[in-house]
């Protein structure tokens, strides 16, 4: 069975280089990309019960208009939890989505267990497609 430490190692090996190539800065689990005043945010969140994680997407519009905590925070210190408009990767059209890497008894109703490498590859794919499309539709987003 895969533990959290092993899952994090695979995410760092697969997803973090993709995020860096796309212009993101930061350290696991928080990443940001600032472009002309628009800040795209990514956060990896692990379930407290273990066995699954989600990837939260958020943004800060120019002028920090969609933040409700510390609206003058510098981009490197912004967090998805500060934004009024955020979504989970894999569920941008609504709902919830978790990536399951361990026993379903630890993560009931979240889906089937998948190998860490498959989950990381899927996260990378969704970050470059679904996430980019979601950010592109937000007010003040730069054209990519």
Key phrases:
144 residues, alpha+beta, 6-stranded antiparallel beta sheet, 2 helices, 27% helix, globular
Describe this structure as you would to a colleague.
By secondary structure, the chain is of the alpha+beta class. Strands 1, 2, 3, 4, 5 and 6 form a six-stranded antiparallel sheet that branches. The termini are far apart. The model has no long low-confidence stretch (mean pLDDT 88). The chain has one domain. The protein has helices spanning 4-21, 116-136, and strands at residues 25-27, 30-35, 38-46, 52-60, 86-88, 99-100. 27% of the residues lie in helices and 22% in strands. Strand 2 and strand 3 (38-46) form a beta hairpin. The protein has two helices and six strands, in the order αββββββα. Helix 1 (4-21) packs across helix 2 (116-136).
